[in-house]
Amino acid sequence: MDGRRRRGWRRGTCTCATGRWTGRLSQHGVLAAGVPGELAALAHVAARHGRLPLSWSLERAARVAEKGFVPGRSYRGRVAGALDEVSFAGPAAPEFEEFRRIWRLPSAGKRWVLRQPELAMTYRRLAEGGAAEFYRGEVARRAVEFMRARGGLMREPDWAGYEPRLREPVRSTYRGHEVVGFPPPSSGGVHVAEILNILEAFDLKAMGEDTPEMVHVVVEAMRRAFADRARWLGDPDHVRVPRGLMDRGYAAGLAGGIDPARATPVDGAGQPPRAEEDVFEAERWRHTTHFAAVDEAGNWVGCTATVNTSFGSKVVVPGTGIVLNNEMDDFAAAPGVPNFFGLVGAEANAVAGGKRPLSSMSPTVVLKDGRPLLVVGAAGGPTIISQAVLAIVRAVDFGRPPGEALRGRRFHHQWRPDEVLLERSWGEGMARALRDRGHRVRWVDELGATQAVGLGRLGRLEAASDPRVEGMGATR
Ligand code: DON
Hints:
Blueprint: H1 2-6, H2 22-25, H3 38-49, H4 54-67, H5 73-85, H6 97-102, H7 117-135, H8 138-150, H9 156-160, E1 170-174, E2 177-181, H10 188-199, H11 204-207, H12 212-232, H13 248-256, E3 289-294, E4 300-305, E5 315-317, E6 322-324, E7 364-368, E8 371-379, H14 383-396, H15 402-407, E9 411-412, E10 420-423, H16 427-436, E11 441-444, E12 449-455, E13 461-465
Parallel strand pairs: 10-11
Antiparallel strand pairs: 1-2, 2-7, 3-4, 5-6, 7-8, 8-12, 9-10, 12-13
The chain binds 6-diazenyl-5-OXO-L-norleucine.
């Protein structure tokens, strides 16, 4: 992530009325963090659907944290970037002391084994006490104590009151396939569906994989969907998010505005049907990593978790090894003010107590005739949506097995800034073709990290890990 940032992501550089640098307040330090949700979600999933108790998995994780691991190239890069990001605070800033102590880079040429004994201890404590220990026990107590002393806002009731929400997935179709995605407050499911709905109006296969015609049309679909994201998307428990964004007729209207020969202006969001009355339900009760997994019992799982940017807020709760997220930056700090990823938002995604920030996480399952074909998801902020769309398009339109689908060259457009991010591997030819159609192009070395499991050639299961990052898919 930090690598990507150096390669040209925009940082939030605004100052708010008080003259404080809101970009940074939402990105680093105690004000940047929201209540962590991942453990509550994992505990819920393990209890309801898992074969292994969470305590077993936590014990394994504790052993890894204790024994340590040798960080690879990209991990080291992220650590270096994150340390660089907090250098503005000066070497002695107590907020980042723990982070700097644990993630101290060794001198050049020296082998680095990263051991996290405090984290191991915390995992063991959680293995014993469960999620309650995290939200109402020692971790919450220490975190709140630390916040209180340093101007942070979270208090015990914020932690104790955290509950995972079970939500109905969003369902759409794409060329005879069913697409099952993650609903708001992630924008992922809605906009993966919206982009695919728009693309159905075009015969991508006839255009040819990776031709300028195809790339242009997909970019135009992304621009329109991201303009809608900026206007309409937020936490449905707090704002009205129109279901009509996924309406096929609405998408057909947007597709009608796409000129295959040139970029047409997208000045703002569209007007989805029944925007006021047909909205996502508020459900009353009842550094991003994506896992895609399939087991022999036929379970297909896509799971995305995030602390937002690398090492989140860079605040480590002393004595616990727990890094707090910087999810506050996924809110819109003010209308039109770009966040770390350059995304702008509106009232729908304004900050409010108890509200969840907007996300782009897009864990998606694609089914054909009721049987799963692909489970896919990604890391990389808003590019997650584009990565999921591209993987699905490559699988469905071009028949690519997962490994090939993930190797495919990537591009991304998020409406604002009005430019296409293009991986360098495309070469000047594609850039020229897009410029000829009226697009502004910005080069990036690599875009994102997608993980997928799906049916490969001959119908065999294939696990694929993005070749842009270390690691590999495991198939038994
Ligand atoms: O939920 C989101 O959209 C962001 N918090 C994701 C950030 C992300 O993917 C960063 N990692 N690579």
